[in-house]
Amino acid sequence: MITISTASNAIGRARVSRLISISGGILVAIAVIAIVVPWLSPNNYLDTDFDNILAAPGLAGAHLFGTDDLGRDLFVRTMMGIQVTLLVALVASFVSLVIGVLYGAIAGYVGGRVDAVMMRIVDTLYALPFIFIVILLMVVFERNFLLIFVAIGAINWLDMARIVRGQTLSLKEKEYVEAARLTGVSTPRIILRHIVPNLIGIVIVYVTLTIPQAILVESFLSFLGLGIQEPQTSLGALVDAGVNQKENAAWMLLIPGGLLALILMCFNFLGDGLRDLFDARQSP
Amino acid sequence: MSLLNIESLSVSYADEKVIDRLSFCVNTGESVGLVGESGSGKTQTALAILGLLPGNAKTAGSISFDGKELLGAPEQELNRIRARRISIVFQDPMLALNPYLRIGEQIGRILIAHGLCGGAEAKERVIEMLNAVGLPDPERQSRAYPHQLSGGMRQRAMIASALITKPDLLIADEPTTALDVTVQAQILELLNAIRKDTALLLITHDLGVVAGHCERMLVLERGRLIESGTTREVFGAPQHAHTKAMLEAAPRIRRGDIPSPVDGEVLLKADGVSVSYREAGHGQLHAVRDVDLTLKRGETLAIVGESGSGKSSLVRAILGLIPMRAGTVSFYGETLAKEAGARAAKTRRDLQMVFQDPVGSLNPQMSVVDIVREPLLVHEPLLTNAEGVQRVSEMLQQIGLNDVFLGRYPHELSGGQAQRVAIARALILKPKVLVCDEAVAALDGSVREQILDRLRALQASSGLSILFISHDLGVVRAISHRVLVMYLGRLAELADNESLFTRPQHPYTKALLDAVPVPDPNLPRKEYILSGEVPSILTPPSGCAFHPRCAYAVSRCARERPAALGTNSSVVACHRADELSL
Known about the structure:
The complex is a heterodimer of chains A (about 280) and B (about 575).
Chain A: H1 2-40, H2 74-110, H3 112-127, H4 130-141, H5 145-171, H6 175-183, H7 187-223, H8 235-244, H9 251-282
Chain B: E1 4-13, E2 16-26, E3 31-35, H1 42-50, E4 57-65, E5 68-69, H2 75-81, E6 86-89, H3 93-96, H4 103-113, H5 119-132, H6 138-141, H7 151-163, E7 169-173, H8 181-194, E8 199-204, H9 207-213, E9 216-221, E10 224-230, H10 231-236, H11 241-249, E11 266-279, E12 283-296, E13 300-304, H12 311-319, E14 326-331, E15 334-335, H13 345-350, E16 351-354, H14 368-379, H15 385-399, H16 415-427, E17 433-437, H17 445-462, E18 465-469, H18 473-479, E19 482-487, E20 490-496, H19 497-502, H20 507-515, H21 555-559, E21 565-566, E22 571-572
Parallel strand pairs in B: 3-8, 3-9, 6-7, 7-8, 13-18, 13-19, 16-17, 17-18
Antiparallel strand pairs in B: 1-2, 1-4, 4-5, 9-10, 11-12, 11-14, 14-15, 19-20, 20-22, 21-22
């Protein structure tokens, strides 16, 4: 059976590296363009061009992607939206990743009463209504860009912690963990060296699910007027604006919507590829 | 004309050839053994015959069955032959049986799918078949789900499902490898007794199995047929060097150099060790009860017994990996804490362990050098990076691996190499005691020999003491000084190697010895095959736990539990030990 898996591994690895390089490349390219190009553009995201309200995209005017109903340049606004969306997604996922993995791994590995208390805390947090908490946070701390990250991350880590804990329960029975315990390797080191690295496969899959989720939650919050505030914008907010104008200015919906879809797809493929890569290491 | 005729069959994946111009035939009603180490293409051959090779396999040559060409035959035609005329029994019955279907139903479906009979008659024939394969109370068992049966019973059910259509050819792929030795003997007997006119192609790595149960044998090495002939011929006068080496490496319990007893100071002493687990709905499960043992310096003490006998629990409790319910463990006369974490660093480094699954005991995300060095990081934190790597490299050298392996990851190692790395990790701190839990069970014959040789050499040069858990009596015979036999969590017998193997005192020991397949076709099969299987440890039998399976049991055995009596060198727990001569 070794021979079969080697053969399919070889095919698998080639496919994996192609997936990673294509989707990763597109994401990096989008990010670089979104950050650099607005500097070169004559327009900025605030200025309104009263001569070109709802202008169609084209190379003729100065507005590559056209303008919105207030005459603002859609190209610069879309690039800004990408910046904000990527930032929200990455920071929120990172927050949920760090908290969730450590929390889940500790609860799962230590077990017993510690596990019971830690997981009941998670259950309790689950029961709190998310939107209510966010509104409360917004009211207390004023509207704050950073708060959106924290709010989204703080919700997502609950799922992550549960998944990681379950996986840890089976990992801690592995013989290499027993060997480490026998030698006297300290508990924090066992968690960091032996448990966490072996969680990567499942964690990556889950992160690729949380990134799109975070993007969606952000646009949802923006829609409710709790997220990104005008005149700043995000892809989600742009799509919302585009929906209102879809009859007379379809580009306002299609351009940011298309880019949002492309970014989500790339994250999904990237996650797919990374998981396969780590899986190849785990199984012979 | 023969029933199955394979001519110059080749199977390859990408550019790797796994079977290379293989030709052989199987005649009606005969039993043929197909032998080889892992990776030799045995299973690939079976899959090729059944047309079950994965899609990326390229095949060439011819497989004709009863005059019909099977290679490249359309799926429809294969479906008429598979299970109807050619059946297969796989290694792991738990994986081969559908967990969601009752045993009787899934066997009956075969009959119905092939249009051999209707529902009502199928049910009858299934029960008849289950009865024939020795499933007790077949009426009731046919309504059981696979997980409700024990390993041996599942394999019996699997055999029933393979033979229900009265096929012309039965392929058995390592049918007993996952089973205990006593159950293996029963299953092999059953296979031969029940198949009648069905030809048997028995695929195995165990030469003992072939010697006892096959008329002809074929030896494969890396996809090539290197030797074939009647079993007697091949065992009597092997032609190919590889066959000779395999025969040489086959463990034999009746011959060979056995280690002479050692007389050193007592290093490790365990008194009255008991281990119990809480089992939901069943209260306490007593995995180990009141076992004493001593281990001397430079000595190998083997612990043997069927699965569920408590071997692993015993050593894990001694090492402090699982909690002990009662008992004490002392090392150099000093009583140790029950929890590994609470023991002094000095003691911890002196007690190390090697696990059964070579790949599973290495962290897949760490390179070999990191794996082997980890104990040094804990116990000798002052060592510089370069010194650490140097020590790892020296250790690997000792165990027979060169520096190329330092940067490899576990999935890039073969089973034997991975087990060497695990041994290197255990030995890098120069422990006094090494515990091997089935450490060579997953390895091929020749690799197993090499690892055992290394262990013996290390023991000779450094006075290492070894606690060696194994179910393989051939290995135990070759490496241990003393042997402890366990049954259902209790000690059955403890004796030195020579007396245990030549003059067993406990009927259970005798049964274990007789069940070992002997790689010699000229020896008569053993008459004393143990009936039944290990009872559930949740509800151990009264009195002597072994009495329901014991051929020598008297009424007293069911009433009173025999005490473990004897001297330092030999202990036996049997009422009739003095009167029986086994």
